[in-house]
Amino acid sequence: MNWMAWTLPTASFFVAVVMGLTLFTILEVIRPTTRRKTGFLPISTTRGDRFFISLLGSAFIHIFFLAVAPYWIAIGSIASITWATIVLRWG
User: Fold this and answer.
1) Which residues are 45's β-sheet partners?
2) How many CA atoms lie within 13 A of 20 on its CB side?
3) In tens digits, what is the pLDDT along the chain, a chain of 91 residues?
């Protein structure tokens, strides 16, 4: 793995994504989800769709913070977690 620059934040991010995918897979097996259109997203979504949308949004939030203020990446992480929570709960 010498060709990758694995830092603690990078490894933590990928571990969190894998844990989220594992959690949502277990939830889908135990309690299958149905499509719903009750939140602010303009499409009907499943639990997995909202998780994917939250990951995409989190990536864009981090890219924005890296471009504008790279030393404030912790604020970008807090904003990403907030975004993911909002999308998963009310999306």
Assistant:
1) 36
2) 18
3) 566 677 787 788 889 889 999 999 999 899 998 888 878 888 888 888 899 999 999 999 989 988 998 888 889 889 999 999 999 888 7
**Which residues, including other chains, have CB under 8 Å from residue 26's CB and lie 6 or more apart?**
none
8 A C-beta contact, residue 87 and residue 50: yes
Q: What is the DSSP string of 2-63?
A: TTS---HHHHHHHHHHHHHHHHHHHHHHHS----B--SSSSS-B-HHHHHHHHHHHHHHHHH
- Contact assessment for residue 15 and residue 1, using Cβ atoms and an 8 Å cutoff: no
Q: Estimate the crossing angle of helix 73-90 against helix 47-68, to 10 degrees.
A: 160
